[in-house]
Amino acid sequence: MQVTLKLFASLASYLPPNKKTSIEADIELAEGSTIGDVISLYKIPRKSAHLVMVNGVYIKPEERDQYALKSNDALAICPPVAGG
What we know:
Elements (H helix, E strand, L loop, with lengths): L1 E6 L16 E5 L6 H7 L9 E4 L2 E2 L15 E5 L6
Parallel strand pairs: 1-5
Antiparallel strand pairs: 1-2, 3-4, 3-5
């Protein structure tokens, strides 16, 4: 199945080489793959996966390893943001 992976800020460096834009890539996943599977597959540091959304809906950290993605989902991951 195909999913759009969007990685923001410092996480964009974890995108595969076939990315569509500087923050987005279409990826192929096995049916039943979870958000946790994607984080592991692309070696995204879990502590850096601060804000995770599927189709614009926030997914709590404790739900990410069980949340099965569907074809054409958009998975967005943002790191923690600090500022002054």
